[in-house]
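Morning F.,

Quick status update on the modeling queue. The single chain you submitted on Monday has been processed. Sequence for confirmation:
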Amino acid sequence: MNGAQTIRLSRNSYRTGTEEAERFAVPVEAPIAIETNGIAYAVMMATPIEIEDFVTGFLLAEGLAAAGEIGDVAVHPVENGEWGTGYVARVNLPPERLSLIIERARRRTGDSSCGICGIEGVEAALRPLPTLSRQSAASPEAIRRGLDALDAAQRLGRETRATHAAAFCNEEGMLLAIREDVGRHNALDKLVGALVRGGIDPAQGFVVMTSRCSYELVEKTVRAGIPLLVTISAPTDLAVRRARAAALSLCVVARDDAMLVVTDTQPSDEGATPLVEP
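Structure tokens below.
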């Protein structure tokens, strides 16, 4: 499975009017059908690499299983003629999860794994989040090191300039895992799945992402038990409110020289000005 493929195109110059052939790398986007206990649960569009990690993180974000309940993920390619290859990922969850799977199972194609698939009604979409019990001990310098590591490790991003990345760093800013995808939600699901499958404690580090901070990213981070989320772009108001309610430390518009601290659950935040007034 490849994350990128090369296409032929032409480069046209605005100034000279000249045209020349060029080869250009673009990310692969393919349907991934997720089947749980033999039931078709969802079809998501994603970059078909690290599918096992993606399915694991997706199921955790959906609230269908706990980390220790997800078995082996079997991935099967399905040829689809001129549209290329799709994939079916099959996994078994404990029998006591079956009623929830059936209740929310459906066949639909989504843009990415936003974390509210198969949910009806506002109350269900904004169901209560757990409150994080551990605060992040990462310093601003550690976050800066994490940002540098994220930038250097984006292999698919450098090749295509069209993907998102999510990285997990320990509290000193050392990169432990990174995942990339055309969708920011997918990248985070893959990262969370990689932590679970790799036996890495999510409470002992933080996530850095190459995207804006939507509320779904906050919810996925909280449900994974990660105490700090850092994004390079701004948050939505709902992301801020959900982060505060769950005691998630949230830093945004993170750059080489500064970042905005939206929520900081550490004691040192006294006197800090929140990005959005309560």
